[in-house]
Automatic annotation (TrEMBL):
It comes from Lacibacter luteus. Pfam families: DAGK_cat (PF00781), YegS_C (PF19279). SUPFAM superfamilies: NAD kinase/diacylglycerol kinase-like (SSF111331). It comes from the Bacteria. GO terms for molecular function: ATP binding; kinase activity; metal ion binding. InterPro entries: ATP-NAD_kinase_N, Diacylglycerol/lipid_kinase, Diacylglycerol_kinase_cat_dom, Lipid_Phosphate_FormReg, NAD/diacylglycerol_kinase_sf, YegS/DAGK_C. PANTHER family: LIPID KINASE YEGS, SPHINGOSINE KINASE. This is YegS/Rv2252/BmrU family lipid kinase. The keyword Glycosyltransferase does not apply. GO terms for biological process: phospholipid biosynthetic process. One of its GO terms (cellular component) is plasma membrane. Residues 1-130 form the DAGKc domain. The lineage of its organism: Bacteria, Pseudomonadati, Bacteroidota, Chitinophagia, Chitinophagales. Its cofactor is Mg(2+). PROSITE patterns: DAGK (PS50146).
Length: 296
């Protein structure tokens, strides 16, 4: 079958070589002798136009150059279509790309797009909203909301905002209910993870897999702040989180296909790094084998 590509990216994005991304795409597609078109990412996050374009032009592959938020928004519109998804990591964290083994180097990312294997991977929904990688409620969502407002973004800005917010960190009351567990707790944050990391190779859920039909839920509970930070860093560094539904030094970690989180403290929400409106109840459900991702 002849492959036909759509590339989506922010036209203002640069690359390490100094060449515009569009030029690199044109050069590589000419070399690979494939048909392609280019679309720019949209500020209004409305990608419904892609559905007709994919069907009409018999597109086989959609390549997204961006971060987790952009990827998630585009996938929400097209994950049900029979296309392969490629990624050129261009975000601050690139959690999905790194979890899938896709390198940040653009030439190596192109190699995965043209020579890799399409594999079915999972996603999940929060109150019906699509999430491809990792979403959270609480402290990290508060940082995400502030990050969204910044004119200058990037990893250093995210770290800066995280450190600034540490001084005012607080816990929120939650009730977690699933087939496996029912628990009331006060937590700084709860992460719902389909991938094994926040981004930038920082692991939050070391047991998580893109293809196991489960989400990993990590709740960091009320404790001495400095002791909490030390424990989380220790568990992340050595991958010692367990999934036996027991509390381990202020950390609860378990896996499930579906759960409900009652959010009586109005903790903020982020979906794949983008701040979203909060709710009193969050219903989370796995979409097994949600789409085909080009992986090494």
């Amino acid at each position: 079958m002849q492959r036909r590509f759509i590339f989506l990216f922010n036209p203002r994005s640069g690359v390490q070589t100094g060449k515009p991304l569009q030029q690199l795409i044109e050069e590589r597609c000419k070399k690979e002798q494939v048909e392609f078109s280019i679309e720019h990412s949209r500020a209004d996050a409305d990608y419904s136009f892609l559905i007709e374009k994919i069907n009409t032009a018999a597109v086989t592959d959609v390549v997204i150059a961006g971060g987790d938020g952009t990827i998630s928004t585009i996938l929400a519109a097209i994950h049900h279509l029979p296309v392969n998804i490629g990624i050129i990591p261009r975000g601050s964290g690139n959690g999905l790309a790194f979890a899938a083994g896709i390198p940040k180097n653009i030439n190596k990312a192109f190699d995965v797009i043209f020579k890799g294997t399409a594999q079915r991977v999972d996603a999940f929904t929060i109150n019906g909203r699509f999430s491809c990688m990792l979403s959270g409620i609480g402290f990290d969502a508060k940082v995400a909301h502030e990050f969204d407002k910044q004119s200058k973004r990037g990893l250093l800005k995210y770290i800066q905002l995280s450190l600034e917010n540490i001084a005012s960190i607080k816990t929120y009351p939650f009730t977690i209910s699933s087939k496996e567990i029912n628990l009331q707790l006060d937590a700084y944050f709860i992460s719902i993870a389909n991938s094994n990391q926040f981004g930038n190779h920082v692991t939050i859920a070391p047991k998580a897999s893109l293809q196991d039909g489960l989400v990993d839920v990590v709740a960091v509970e009320k404790a001495n702040l400095f002791a909490m930070i030390s424990r989380v860093i220790w568990h992340i560094r050595f991958g010692t989180f367990t999934t036996d539904f027991a509390k381990r030094n202020g950390i609860t970690y378990f896996q499930t296909k579906e759960l409900t989180i009652t959010n009586t403290g109005n903790a903020p929400l982020h979906i794949d790094g983008d701040g979203k409106e909060a709710a009193g109840v969050f219903h989370i459900k796995v979409i097994a084998s949600a789409y085909s991702l080009l992986m090494p």
